[in-house]
Design a protein that fits this description.
The protein has about 120 residues and is mainly beta. The protein has strands at about 5, 10-15, 20-25, 35-40, 45-50, 55-60, 65-70, 75-80, 90-100, 105-110, 115-120.
Length: about 120
């Protein structure tokens, strides 16, 4: 069973927009944390955004004001709306799901999608 399936990646010019989608299975739909990560060639994976089941969100400084994470509980789907894209946003994007550690309010992600490529040209 595939727990998370991403879609929506592609190639755009600088300043363009893309929306990524991530559909969750029954195993992952009710997980408290849903997130998006990215990994560029030669770089470590970095967190981009997360949304909790209560709707609260958190973003990496590099994407604040440009990216928006959202979720549709009825469709078991969470999204990443990406605007004003820059070449430095080029990466493989992965969606994730996991549990919240109430002690420190951090999420531990145990489910990952297969990744979708986003390429931004200058």
């Amino acid at each position: 069973q595939v727990d998370l399936v991403e879609s929506g990646g592609g190639s755009v010019q600088s300043g363009g927009s893309l929306r990524l989608s991530c559909v969750a299975s029954e195993n992952t739909a009710t997980k408290y944390c849903k997130g998006w990560f990215r990994q560029a060639p030669g770089k470590e994976r970095e967190g981009v955004a997360r949304i909790l089941i209560d709707g609260s969100t958190k973003y990496a400084d590099s994407v604040k004001g440009r990216f928006t994470i959202s979720q549709d509980m009825a469709r078991n789907t969470h999204y990443l709306e990406m605007n004003s894209l820059k070449p430095e946003d080029t990466a493989m994007y992965y969606c994730s799901a996991g549990d919240l550690h109430y002690s420190d309010a951090n999420c531990e992600y145990s489910y990952w999608g297969q990744g979708t490529q986003v390429t931004v040209s200058s």
